[in-house]
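hey can u check if this looks right to u? its 293 residues, i copy pasted from the old doc so theres a chance i mangled smth
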Amino acid sequence: MEPAEMPYEPGELVHVHHDGDSEGRTHRFGCEVLSVSEADEVNDYTYTLFSFGWERVLATDYRHSQLYPSPRGYPNIDEFLGDGHVQGERLLGKFKRRDLEVIDECLTMVDNEADATKDWFNELRKEDVDRINSVFAELVLLYHLRTVYGRKRVSLNARVGEKDFDLRLTTEEEDVWIEVTKPDFADSLSDGFAWGLPKTTQNSIDRKLKSKFEEARDHAPEDAVLILGIYCEEQINQGFAMGQWLDEEYYDVSEICDGWLSYTHLIDTQIGYQSFTDAGERCRTLFDRMVEE
């Protein structure tokens, strides 16, 4: 990432450049420029910053050469957003550096002209963190699938009936349709925690199955394999909640869904897979390759 060519102005968003060889921890949250101290050279300008993550002014002022614009300093994000301001990009710029690094990398697998990304822009324009995170969840899975199977085999927004499925993977043996959900698990912890608390995980799964999979099963190709992709912020506790929901046996999930794939990117890519039908079980090796390669 490179600093901007011109000095930053108050109100602009930046990230602090992370030097892997430097000692200590580099500030990782998006920051707003509060004040500017001018100098003879642009790179010697210094800035007072407000951290959105810490919700306070940082004690240290930073030189221009230590900062880069957020989110436009990330080249693939900048190319994806295109020319001109996009409503919602300021909220995206407040995200942590690591999250934007992941998004920037994942966008290498997106064709801005050929892929159906209109829905992503619509979600960004809502200026809602949860909606941006939902796009993030879809993008992460798209990246891993295309890394293994290539762009031609993995498409966005596959039409089934009157609705779209987020992703479609076609191999010589299988035709896999994937709908992605991201339960807002972290929000459910704000008032405390106990085993089985994250009802948001269970409710999100139930809503998605009823809103998309019931109709899809009636209209999808006969050999289509329908998979629910569940992005997890916390694999252990959310996995417990998902197992608990299945144990209740509210209805026969296998009648509408062949399996579900849980995954996260927070440290290394981790996946969990639960099949409900023979067709779903055949797809297990397809998803295992996401972490093997």
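The chain has two domains: 13-69, 96-292.
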